Each structure stands twice: as structure tokens, then as C-alpha cells.
Amino acid sequence: MKIAIGCDHGGIVLKNAVIKAVVELGHEYEDLGTYDNQSVDYPDYGEKVAVAVASGNADKGIVLCGTGIGISIVANKVRGIRCAHITNEFCAQMAAEHNNANVIAMGGRINTEEDAYNMTKKFLTTEFAGGRHATRVDKIMAVEKNNLK
Ligand code: RB5
Predict the structure, then answer these.
(1) I need a labelling partner for 15 at 20 to 30 A (CA). Which of 104, 119, 137, 149 fits?
(2) E strands, the chain, where?
(3) What is the mean pLDDT of residues 18-33?
(4) Looking at 65, 83, 85, 91, which residue is catalytic?
């Protein structure tokens, strides 16, 4: 798989740990920035990753900001994106297994690098369960269709 990764200055502390997990699993990645600690606006990077995933240029995305909140909100504004804001491994598992999330968001002021490494591995190694969860995910996408112009 190809994983698109993006962050702001608040999330950059987690980026290397995320990349390490992605590479260890044998996936490719594209680092869409930011690349240093200078203050930037998280919507710019959340959008880049979300568009990469929605357009098919990447299979999944990982976005990082201070809390993970702002950048997850941004990613979810792009049609086709199901971005889960996660803070632990159980959430990472459920995001994949139940929600079929195609992007996860984490916070550099919330979680450690070790947490981010473990959450990334859990998210990328967990399969969508389908069944009743597929019905619910279909309903999520119907809400998008009915409400996003
Ligand atoms: C930037 O200071 C901070 O607001 C951002 O990283 C993020 O936490 C927003 O949700």
C-alpha cells in the first residue's frame, strides 16, 4: 500500500515514528509535509493527505497535528474520506475494523512516539470486518452524498 502522511508543527514530533511503522510493514509512503517546526496551518496539510487518498494517489492517509482534532476535521471535509481521530490502539483497531477509516489522525501533544508507532501498526494491520459494519459505513457515505454539495 501507499500511505500519504501529513502534519503541522504540532504533529511533526510523531512523523518519524509513523514512517518507521509504515516502512517496517513494507508499505510505501509519501510525506506531504510540513518538514520542520515552523508554525503552519493544519488545514493545508490535512487537505493534501485527504485529496491524495480520495483521488487514489494513496491507499490510506495518516495526519498529525497538536491534538489530531483540527486535522481530522479538515480531512473529513473531503468527499470519500473517513478520518478517525484516534488516541490509543483500541481506537486504531476499531477505526479499521468497524469504521473502515481510510485516514487516521493523531496528536503530537496527546500521544508519544511509541503510541503513534503502535497505533499506526494496529491501524495498518487490521482488516475491515464488513457485515453489519459495512451497512453502517454505507450509511455514513449516504450522509455524505445527501449533505455535501
Ligand atoms: C496548532 O497550534 C494546533 O492548533 C494544531 O496543531 C492542532 O492541535 C489543531 O487542532
Answers:
(1) 137
(2) 2-7, 28-31, 60-65, 83-85, 103-107
(3) 98
(4) 65
pLDDT band at 147 (very low <50, low <70, confident <90, very high): very high
Ligand 1 atom 10: the closest Cα is on which residue? 70
Give burial (CB, 10 Å; 0-12/13-18/19+) of 93: middle
What the chain holds in terms of domains, given with CATH numbers, is 2-147 (3.40.1400.10)
d(CA 81, CA 37): 27
Q: Is 85 one of the annotated active-site residues of the chain?
A: no
> What does pTM read for this prediction?
0.98
98 is catalytic: yes
Q: How far apart are the first and last CA of the chain?
A: 30
